[in-house]
Amino acid sequence: DVFEQPQHVGHKKIEFHISTDIPAVLQINSEKEEKNGKTSYFKYLSATTEEINNTGFGRIFPAPSSNDKMETEEEDDEIPSEFISRKDLEKNRLSREEMEKFSVFKNYEPGDPNCRIYVKNLAKQVQEKDLKFIFGRYVDFQSEVERNMFDIRLMKEGRMKGQAFIGLPNEKAAAKALKEANGYVLFEKPMVVQFARSARPKQDASEGKRKK
């Protein structure tokens, strides 16, 4: 008797009545959010368009500038970096007028084009690494053939002291080396660069004598 006895209750139906009408307050808020969203989106668009106009897509995919294009064009000349650059060659090379003042350039003739060059008037301090630093720029060291053809013979004693013979991969490379390195001042002495005299005619002549 202390506790109330539960009364039997029949099944009750629970119904939810959801109205499709949005309350005025919620509608206003949603409209504000939509407007804010649109304005912020337009702000973003305008900001990005200004950024594109000002900088392009430089931050994502940098487009090569004119300087970059020039560097890529000169890439063949400047790589590998352990060799002298064309700018340094031009900077320290004598002009034709200046060459005429030196007796070593009197009656200068480049000689017959071939893949070997002859260098004279070298200073005492010059070593093979100095010549490699200059003439190595005309060799493609990624090519095993060109690497093997590149040869430096520096004369340090006797009558040939201060002279060198340099073998390059081909006649074109040798011609370019002669054009750019002739008159280059190395250790305060201008180099005289010529095509080396080929010994082939003499060999042919000696072979002809042997056949007779």
UniProtKB/TrEMBL annotation:
Lineage top rank: taxon: Eukaryota
Region of interest (Disordered), ranges: 56-77
Single Gene Ontology BP annotation: mRNA splicing, via spliceosome
Pfam families recorded: RRM_1 (PF00076)
Domain RRM, residue spans: 115-198
UniProt keyword annotation of Repeat present: yes
GO cellular component: a single term: U12-type spliceosomal complex
GO MF annotation terms: pre-mRNA intronic binding; U12 snRNA binding
Record key words, sorted: Nucleus, Repeat, RNA-binding
Location(s), subcellular: Nucleus
Protein name (Swiss-Prot/TrEMBL): RNA-binding region-containing protein 3
Source organism of this protein record: Onychorhynchus coronatus (Royal flycatcher)
